[in-house]
TrEMBL record, chains A, B:
<feature type="binding site">
    <location>
        <position position="85"/>
    </location>
    <ligand>
        <name>L-histidine</name>
    </ligand>
</feature>
<feature type="binding site">
    <location>
        <begin position="254"/>
        <end position="255"/>
    </location>
    <ligand>
        <name>L-histidine</name>
    </ligand>
</feature>
<dbReference type="InterPro" id="IPR045864">
    <property type="entry name" value="aa-tRNA-synth_II/BPL/LPL"/>
</dbReference>
<feature type="domain" description="Aminoacyl-transfer RNA synthetases class-II family profile">
    <location>
        <begin position="1"/>
        <end position="319"/>
    </location>
</feature>
<dbReference type="GO" id="GO:0004821">
    <property type="term" value="F:histidine-tRNA ligase activity"/>
</dbReference>
<dbReference type="InterPro" id="IPR015807">
    <property type="entry name" value="His-tRNA-ligase"/>
</dbReference>
<dbReference type="InterPro" id="IPR006195">
    <property type="entry name" value="aa-tRNA-synth_II"/>
</dbReference>
<dbReference type="GO" id="GO:0006427">
    <property type="term" value="P:histidyl-tRNA aminoacylation"/>
</dbReference>
<keyword id="KW-0436">Ligase</keyword>
<feature type="binding site">
    <location>
        <position position="103"/>
    </location>
    <ligand>
        <name>L-histidine</name>
    </ligand>
</feature>
<keyword id="KW-0648">Protein biosynthesis</keyword>
<dbReference type="InterPro" id="IPR033656">
    <property type="entry name" value="HisRS_anticodon"/>
</dbReference>
<dbReference type="InterPro" id="IPR041715">
    <property type="entry name" value="HisRS-like_core"/>
</dbReference>
<dbReference type="Pfam" id="PF03129">
    <property type="entry name" value="HGTP_anticodon"/>
</dbReference>
<keyword id="KW-0547">Nucleotide-binding</keyword>
<protein>
    <recommendedName>
        <fullName>Histidine--tRNA ligase</fullName>
        <ecNumber>6.1.1.21</ecNumber>
    </recommendedName>
</protein>
<dbReference type="InterPro" id="IPR004516">
    <property type="entry name" value="HisRS/HisZ"/>
</dbReference>
Amino acid sequence: MGIARRVYRSFGFSPIDTPALEYSEILLGKGSDETDKQMFRFQDQGERDVAMRFDLTIPFARFAAQHIGQLGTPFKRYHIGTVWRAEKPQKGRYREFIQCDFDTIGTDSNASDIETLFVIHDLMEAIGFTGFTIRVNHRQLLNGLLDRHSVVDKSVGILRALDKLAKIGADKVIAEMVDGVGIEKATAEQILEFAQLSGTPASILSDAESLIGDNERGQVGLTSLKELFETCRKVGIEDDRIALDVSIARGLDYYTGTIYETFLSDLPGIGSVCSGGRYDNLAGLFTKEKLPGVGASLGLDRLLAAMDELGLVKTASTPAQVLVAMFDGEKMAEYLALGRRLRSAGISAEVYPQARKIQKQFQYANRKGFRVVVIAGSREFEQQVWNVKDLELGTQTEVADADLAASLHGILSR
Amino acid sequence: MGIARRVYRSFGFSPIDTPALEYSEILLGKGSDETDKQMFRFQDQGERDVAMRFDLTIPFARFAAQHIGQLGTPFKRYHIGTVWRAEKPQKGRYREFIQCDFDTIGTDSNASDIETLFVIHDLMEAIGFTGFTIRVNHRQLLNGLLDRHSVVDKSVGILRALDKLAKIGADKVIAEMVDGVGIEKATAEQILEFAQLSGTPASILSDAESLIGDNERGQVGLTSLKELFETCRKVGIEDDRIALDVSIARGLDYYTGTIYETFLSDLPGIGSVCSGGRYDNLAGLFTKEKLPGVGASLGLDRLLAAMDELGLVKTASTPAQVLVAMFDGEKMAEYLALGRRLRSAGISAEVYPQARKIQKQFQYANRKGFRVVVIAGSREFEQQVWNVKDLELGTQTEVADADLAASLHGILSR
């Protein structure tokens, strides 16, 4: 969460928070039948019908509709917050979970679409993932192709048929589109050809263009994606970090432009860990003002499960790196004073609160993951030195009181 | 919240989180009649009787009772989290608010009491308050005095009478203690004398000792406070930052030892912004294991109201300091690339997403509180320079592309 916060802020996204409870009418019917059923909903003490938010997007839409006049556009916000769904809990899926959303609203500039990809990229790198691919698509590519063949009204059936490709094979998909959905065989073949395009972004875009032709909707998607991939090349984003995948669709109704999914090379099976896209109108349910935007959401619980599996989660359970052992209870003030001195020097330090057996204190230090233990008994106090034990290297050195902070800085920065 | 997090961590407190919803039986009867009534409580989809937490202490007690075996002691945790109470909302008092708690449990060492005071002190300083006083007391001082006179069983009535001191005056308080509560006049006079002690911590402690004598309970409090104030002196905490105030009591039943309240010199009327104390047994309601501890809680909403009143809240609404203006839409990739370069150099930078009129972009920059705007048009791109406009000083300079990051670092660190 700290990393997400830092990356979002570095792009100028401001934090906002909204209440956990919203009036139920704000949330009902905005997600799916499922989210309606999974809402924790009740009457409060004032007999208001309220519910706990099931995502951060609907509350943001409500917030934007109410406040966009004061906020002005473009408006960039991030929100790291808890949401609730009465689901059946399973691995990486909980009734309470945290979403990390960021969105730019009030602009339809492609610059924001490209920047959204930058944010996802920088976020994944900052977390420590080396192998990941952001798959990008644009909703208007397929729409343009369907529009060219005047079959936009049959898109639901066509998409349903395409979804079965892996299971039933190309011939049967074409048969279903022709016999079931009722489109021309030549059209069905072109749609299938489009859905199977692969290769470099440039080659896919060139192939897609020959299928879509000069259809206006399709050209919107082609132009946007061309600019996106060219800009990524110019700014030096590595080729294997981004891909054009015409098969991703993401929540059919909501998104209208660029869409993003992010997969880990070492754990593709876990699904997308950061997804999003461009929408035409965020707050349309709450206001007449049109608020286009683009954003994405980091799936924190899924990501943590993945990081755990990849060994990226450190097990240290203390945020401090130095433990000041309490060897002699009579000298409590000295140990506490040392803690203060180290903190003033920018070193996080915990002082063990009791003069228990020193072995117990070392056990504590090891279990909690401290890097260094600092000890002094009567001899050390007399000579104004400290015993510095490096738990990682297993070494012990005597350091003069005046040099202690510098010495610890040296150990901790190694 | 970021500052609280940093200070807590520097002392070795680990973050924990607990769910917003607890079984109602966990929360009921643990606060007061009021908190019971103010709970947002309902039946979930599985017909479980659940409620939203009204503080972070009871859930921590439940958590500690369940997990202390794995956690081990001492255990230091902080928790910055949202809590809910169906109160009548008023200034600085909301139905949803954030608490910032920290506690050390599993030790009765006075070192932890003293460190709790250090945490409050460092936190207030880190937030930016210069004038504040942490008022300290110990529950066993008054208890010791009452015990010495064998009137502990009458403490409720005695405290009620003492509470009226400012309103009704000394004579009437003594009369109430004698006639209403039924204690000896000499005892009542000593209790009143104790309650009115003032001066330096050392003088109060000396006066208190002559009243309390060698009563065992009272001596516990005296010894603990003596060590606390002596240690504060040794480690160099300024005298005006701490005071001994025998009149503070804080939640009569819960605390058993040292207690803390923190007042702002410029806004004493707002009440304590950071309060806490030592308790004998945190998790007694949930486990047989005895878990003594000490901690405090930062009242974030009250503190923010105070900071707002004292002009300590900055109004900038962007976390980025540099706005890259988009002068020429054709050069979008260049502006986006510059944003990336600046971020790599550790400078938070937002790129304006559209080539709108430059005045509009400056309006945006001023409204959001950006410090610097960076601009380039065709001439600048040709000459590989950027126009750097310092919004605070109102100056504009031309900087070579290669020197830009260094130049901005210079401006931002001034």
